[in-house]
Amino acid sequence: MPYSIRKLQQTGGKSGSSFLVILPKEWIRRQKLSKGDPVVIIEREDGSLIVDPSLPIAGESRNTSVEIESNLRWTITSKYLLGFDEIRVVSDKPISNDQRDELKRIIKRFVALEVTDEDDNQIVVQCLVDPTTLPVDKAMRRMNLIASRMLNDALTAYFDGLQEIAESVVKRDEEVDRLFFLIVRELRLAIQYPRMSEGMGITPVQALDFRLAAQYIERIADLAVEIANRTLHALDKKLVKKMEPIVKMVKEMQSKAVTSLFKFDSEKVAWVIEAEKEIIEVTAKLRQYLISTPSDEPQTHLYVADILLRIGEAAKDIADLGLPKSEEEDS
Question: Domain for residue 4, yes or no?
Answer without folding.
Answer: no
